[in-house]
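Researcher: Please translate sequence to structure tokens.
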Amino acid sequence: MSKILYIEDDPNNRALVRRLLMAYDFEVEESDNAVDGIEMAKAYNPDLILMDISMPGMDGLTATTKIRETDGISDITVIALTANAMEGDREMTIEAGCDGYISKPINVDTFIDEISGYL
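Model: Translation complete:
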């Protein structure tokens, strides 16, 4: 069973993604902010991190950069899961260290396949 950490400030988004992932037997942990999410990644050692990009306090790009600089978690796959879907946003997330990019609103019919492709 793959472990996924979802770092997202919006409780409705967390609930939807959690339901989808748990329906397919993924183990899911959540954080509502980037600072706590980084600490959870250290303790939880997930197989994959879903990272919201627009969060108050520390944004997801900064958090991803910090993850890439932190021993023990620097090689975890990080996927940007974001409503930022303007031209250049995908490239910006990749430059920050994300391994992939999924735009919101997510497509519930293809989301699990997208996630599985990164595992």
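Researcher: Any highlights?
Model: The mean pLDDT is 93.
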